[in-house]
Amino acid sequence: MNRLVILLFAVCVIYSVQGSVDKIKREASLSSRLSQETTSDVHSRARRSSRSSSYLFFDNRSGRTVQLWWRGKQWQKFIQLGAHKTIEINTFVSDKWRATDVETNEVFVINGRKKYRPKTNTRDTRAVCIIKRKGQRDTDIKAYIETLVVLDKTVRDQFDSDSEAEKYVEVLLMLSSNAYKHESLTQHGLKIDIIPSKIVILKNEVNFDISKRGNNLYTACDVMNKQEKVIGSKKFDHKLFLTRNQFGAAGFSRSQAMCSRYSSCSIVFEHGFHAAYLVAHEIAHSLGLSHGDFPQYSRYIMNGFVDSLLNSHRWSTKSQQTLLSNIRKYDYCLGNEASAANNYPYPGEHFSFEKQCDLEFNATYTAWKPSRWEPGEPCAKLRCRMPGRWSFLTRTTGSPALDGTECGENKFCLLGKCQEKPAQRTASVTRRLR
């Protein structure tokens, strides 16, 4: 009996050992196969990664839900895209794309072509692909940002009258609006206007605590919300506060808050017409745009340090696509057509060289004028002579003088050059001076 028990125990041990060995062999075999598969996968990815990449941004303006197709060796369905929707896709230049109506299978065009093959680009230069029906009329995406502008005493004190201060604000926002009319946006049919619907001039200053930077936006918003309640009859898409008091930054705004009754507001440090790009920058934040990592002097409006100039500014590809994606979200409030009360095609007719220097720096600066010893083009850059013992030096914003700035008898600045005034401008200015 004991021998039988011992024999059975020995058999169990042998089978147990054999099972462990088989398990080890199976695991080794599995590990080997996984290793081979991983190696094969790496090679496969390496082969795929050798193809040139392309990054696309599809904007469906057909008014219909479309089926996106891509073609490697054969056509395959990719994704459905609703009317007026957008999507980012990462692909290869060897792939072709097409779009069809989900219900009728009608073939639509992508950037005017039935079959679209992308070019090599990067994530930062992602190609915009607009989907339309064949023969569809081009339709612009329009937005009108009706803005309440509040300026405190520090800004008002720069002018001789309330009417001059209001005219300054109108020109400032016109320049901000012009930034949104840059070809980098209009090429996609995007047109955004910033309208100064109401201008309020405060009789006192608003003081800020520089140590509490973020709270200063809340302070400005609170002031403007109270003003909006006083006005009562109209609600605004955005509220803008202008001041010359320091508040810890060049500007603040609430991200993606456009059209929010209490949160759609921004504050900008006003320092002359150059501040127009700060206004455009902060309003863009309210529309959902973020800073880009751009080198200095890139002139991108969404640079963390705004260095845009009157004659040199642009929107990055990422900014373009974010605006195209987001602007439709606000159609319920920004789609109401509006226009500015006044238009200033030649704003320099209202603000001389001297006044522009006063606003950009301060009243102790004087306008630089070319002379025999210092020749030059007066309109190319706004140059302002420093005060006192430093009067032999000048400062400049880098931007040209405003179009319409008088630079000689019957001459004014236009596109950075001193030119003869057209006859009709000479007559209109003469009538206005009378």
TrEMBL record:
GO BP field = extracellular matrix organization; proteolysis
Q: Which UniProt keywords apply?
A: Disulfide bond, Glycoprotein, Hydrolase, Metal-binding, Metalloprotease, Protease, Zinc
Instruction: Mention one GO molecular function.
Output: metalloendopeptidase activity
The superkingdom listed in its UniProt entry is Eukaryota
A single Pfam family it belongs to is ADAMTS_CR_2
Q: Which residues bind Zn(2+)?
A: H281, H285, H291
**Active-site residues per Swiss-Prot or TrEMBL entry:** E282
The protein's name: A disintegrin and metallo ase with thrombospondin motifs 2-like isoform X2
Which taxonomic lineage is given here? Eukaryota, Metazoa, Cnidaria, Anthozoa, Octocorallia
